[in-house]
């Protein structure tokens, strides 16, 4: 069975192409639920109209599916709570000038 840490590590490979940083550092990754071989990744986008949304969702699916022990992946988009720059890691804030 996959672990939370393995899923999060895999999600570090998924970049927001507009910002050039991964979704974990950007704070777009909200949670993961693991039930045996089934994984549900809950994430947000920087805005509802994000043009890279589908690309990010596809990347999340592929990254989670690549983890050993994962047979099924559900990707859930949420805006509750809405994403804000406060969710970013300190490194991401520094790099993007939010610091």
Q: What would you say this structure looks like, in words?
A:
The chain has 99 residues and is α+β, with helices and mostly antiparallel strands. The protein has helices at residues 4-11, 53-65, 90-96; strands at residues 15-16, 21-22, 29-35, 38-43, 72-77. Strands 3-4-5 form a 3-stranded mixed β-sheet, covered by helices on one side. A two-stranded antiparallel ribbon has the order 1-2. The mean pLDDT is 96. It has one domain (4-81): GMP Synthetase, Chain A, domain 3. It is globular and about 40 Å long.
Features:
99 residues, alpha+beta, GMP Synthetase, Chain A, domain 3, 3-stranded mixed beta sheet, two-stranded antiparallel sheet
Order of helices and strands: HEEEEHEH
Strand content: 15-25%
Task: Determine and state the CATH class.
Answer: Alpha Beta
| CA gyration radius, whole angstroms | 13 Å
Q: What's the name of the CATH homologous superfamily?
A: Fe-S cluster assembly (FSCA)
Distance between the termini: 38 Å
Count of distinct strands: 5
* Tally of discrete structural domains: 1
Average pLDDT metric: 96
- Report the CATH topology name: GMP Synthetase, Chain A, domain 3
- Coarse shape: globular
SSE order and pairing:
Blueprint: H1 4-11, E1 15-16, E2 21-22, E3 29-35, E4 38-43, H2 53-65, E5 72-77, H3 90-96
Parallel strand pairs: 4-5
Antiparallel strand pairs: 1-2, 3-4
Helix pairs in contact: 1-2
């Amino acid at each position: 069975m996959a672990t939370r840490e393995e899923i999060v590590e895999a999600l570090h490979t998924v970049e927001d192409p507009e910002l050039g940083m991964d979704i974990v550092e950007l704070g777009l990754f909200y949670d993961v639920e693991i039930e045996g071989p089934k994984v549900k990744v809950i994430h947000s986008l920087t805005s509802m109209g994000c043009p890279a949304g589908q690309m990010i969702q596809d990347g999340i699916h592929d990254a989670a599916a690549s983890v050993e022990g994962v047979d099924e992946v559900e990707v859930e988009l949420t805006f509750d709570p809405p994403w804000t720059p406060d969710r970013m890691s300190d490194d991401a804030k520094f790099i993007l000038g939010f610091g």
